[in-house]
């Protein structure tokens, strides 16, 4: 007898095979049959007539670790069929911690709606804390280089020890964010030394590389240098090139060609995001000389007109198009201290305040004070053609680079963009159904088995006997993003049923509140 029978649907297996009519039988947390099952006896039957049945989606690049404690039921992403997320990306995780960084993390998590003090310090303790809360989704965790560097105060032996501890606790590997914060201060040699731990432990190296415009070539070569030292298992995060920021003609095509060349000796892939716009931290625009003494000090220094004058020249590491006067490409997304300005472009803010855009940016950051690092901007970063080209490329899996959110509570105030509510559905509704950027089977493969195979989660991401029963049903024609830039706080609809480890967590479009998710550790 089956525990669950999904009958009458069109099965897309996740491995690239053509859609076909079949039923899916589940016992416990495993799929036991993918074939016609007329008359099968089951404790629960889900009628998927007219629906697509496919593996649960796997996001290869997520920051949901920062919201899972406040939103363990993954309200926005589970409704899109995302059953597994790779978290801990871009070097920024909330373990390991020093006493000083623990206070900063406590404040950041509280702003997201998690009221409890941070009691953990080590990475394993963090995983225990999350397990104690329970999650609807499966999570595979990377440990962040920036967190390690800050906890170890940059001492090489201590950084190595903290990475060893995280790997022993079940971290999938190490992530870096080299365009901002502590990661920006790290030299290649420091990262190569840490990569040796990954090589010994069989860990993954992922990177938000140091530059994706004028210095893209050097940043890509640095990535490959570190990846080789790590043993050759790597993920180049969101490999895209920002529009009109100084990248040479053909820079992205060159980077992809290098990726193809290196795959002869390494297991390396890249990922892409679904929208032409992207979200970034305003602090990413600021140079290290302003940030080295902490956010509160940096904010106070913005009172000095000479500091502001110097910043107009030195704020050039991130979103360089503002130096060309293209402020219309930048919108203030999240700034609690100046919430009345959220959703406005910087020319609109400048008109309202009677100041130029640079001073408006500095005013917003000054008002944020010690929370300067949490101010978020939205930028029109990419062309539609570039996004489509990357999505189609066979070496790119499809991620969102956001985090799971909800339409109420503190998170609703911090996630005012469709990325958080409809990013995954956008691939299927916009790029597959409406634009034909790629076909359904290919898109599902790039969001399931391709990710599972590369990240060492091989018994997920596919519909076949023996695989874990992470399964979704959806109506492609009826998929609706609902979330817009003007009215972002709406959940996507059209994903009718979601099972995680054989447990129904979305039932006919309704979240059940179940938390069957698991930590997915690195496999030996």
Structure commentary:
The strands form three sheets. Strands 1, 2, 3, 4, 5, 17, 18, 19 and 20 form a nine-stranded mixed β-sheet that branches. An eight-stranded parallel β-sheet has the order 6-7-8-9-10-11-12-16, sandwiched between helices. Strands 13-15-14 form a three-stranded antiparallel β-sheet, with no helix packed on it. The two termini are 34 Å apart. It is globular, with a radius of gyration of 22 Å. It is built from 19 helices and 20 strands. The protein folds into two domains: 57-276 and 381-506, Metal-dependent hydrolases (TIM Barrel, Alpha-Beta Barrel), CATH 3.20.20.140; 281-380, no CATH class. The protein is of the alpha/beta class and 524 residues long. Helix 5 runs parallel beside helix 7, helix 11 packs across helix 14 and helix 13 packs across helix 14 (357-368). The protein has helices spanning 75-78, 99-111, 123-133, 145-151, 156-169, 181-184, 188-201, 216-229, 251-262, 288-291, 295-301, 305-314, 346-353, 357-368, 384-392, 410-414, 419-434, 440-447, 449-454; strands spanning 2-11, 20-27, 30-35, 42-47, 52-55, 57-59, 82-87, 138-144, 173-177, 204-208, 233-236, 267-272, 277-281, 330-334, 376-380, 396-398, 471-474, 495-500, 503-507, 510-511. This is Dihydroorotase. GO terms for molecular function: hydrolase activity, acting on carbon-nitrogen (but not peptide) bonds, in linear amides. It comes from Amycolatopsis taiwanensis. Residues 44-271, 408-506 form the Amidohydrolase domain. InterPro entries: Amidohydro_3, D-aminoacylase_insert_dom_sf, Metal-dep_hydrolase_composite, Metal_Hydrolase, Metallo-dep_Hydrolases_sf.
């Amino acid at each position: 007898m089956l525990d669950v029978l999904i009958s009458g649907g069109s099965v897309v297996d996740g491995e690239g095979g053509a859609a076909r009519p079949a039923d899916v039988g589940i016992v416990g947390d495993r799929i036991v049959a993918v074939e016609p099952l007329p008359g099968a006896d089951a404790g629960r039957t889900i009628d998927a007539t007219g629906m697509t049945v496919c593996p649960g989606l796997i996001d290869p690049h997520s920051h949901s670790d920062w919201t899972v404690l406040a939103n363990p039921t993954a309200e926005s992403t589970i409704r899109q069929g995302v059953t597994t997320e790779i978290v801990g990306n871009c070097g920024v995780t909330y373990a390991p911690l020093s006493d000083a960084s623990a206070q900063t993390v406590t404040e950041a998590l509280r702003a997201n709606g998690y009221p409890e003090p941070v009691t953990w310090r080590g990475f394993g303790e963090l995983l225990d804390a999350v397990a104690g809360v329970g999650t609807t989704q499966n999570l595979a965790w990377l440990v962040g280089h920036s967190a390690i560097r800050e906890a170890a105060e940059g001492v090489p032996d201590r950084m190595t020890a903290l990475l060893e501890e995280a790997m022993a606790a079940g971290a999938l590997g190490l992530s870096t964010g080299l365009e901002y914060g502590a990661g920006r201060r790290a030299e290649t040699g420091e990262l190569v030394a840490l990569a040796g731990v990954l090589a010994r432990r069989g860990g993954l190296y992922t990177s938000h590389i140091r530059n994706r415009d004028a210095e893209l070539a050097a940043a890509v070569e640095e990535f490959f240098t570190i990846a080789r030292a790590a043993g050759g298992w790597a993920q180049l995060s969101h490999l895209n090139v920002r529009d009109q920021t100084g990248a040479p003609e053909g820079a992205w095509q060159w980077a992809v060609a290098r990726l193809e060349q290196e795959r002869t000796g390494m297991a390396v892939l890249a990922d892409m995001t679904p929208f032409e716009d992207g979200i970034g931290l305003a602090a990413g625009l600021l140079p290290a000389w302003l940030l080295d003494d902490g956010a509160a000090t940096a904010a106070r220094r913005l009172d000095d007109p000479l500091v502001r004058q110097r910043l107009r020249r030195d704020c050039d590491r991130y979103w360089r198009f503002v130096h060309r006067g293209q402020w219309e490409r930048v919108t203030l997304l999240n700034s609690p201290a100046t919430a009345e300005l959220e959703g406005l472009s910087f020319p609109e803010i400048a008109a309202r305040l009677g100041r130029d855009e640079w001073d408006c940016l500095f005013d917003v950051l000054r008002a944020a004070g010690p929370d300067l690092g949490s101010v978020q901007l939205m930028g029109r970063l990419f062309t539609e053609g570039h996004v489509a080209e990357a999505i189609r490329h066979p070496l790119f899996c499809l991620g969102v680079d956001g985090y799971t959110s909800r339409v109420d509570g503190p998170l609703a105030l911090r996630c005012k963009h469709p990325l958080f509510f409809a990013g995954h559905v956008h691939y299927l509704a916009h790029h597959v159904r409406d634009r034909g950027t790629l076909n359904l089977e290919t898109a599902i493969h790039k969001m399931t088995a391709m990710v599972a195979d590369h990240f060492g989660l091989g018994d997920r991401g596919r519909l076949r006997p023996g695989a874990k029963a992470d399964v979704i049903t959806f109506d492609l024609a009826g998929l609706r993003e609902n979330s817009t830039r003007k009215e972002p706080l709406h959940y996507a609809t059209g994903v009718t049923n979601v099972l995680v480890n054989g447990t129904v967590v979305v039932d006919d479009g309704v979240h059940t509140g179940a938390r069957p998710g698991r930590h997915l550790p690195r496999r030996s």
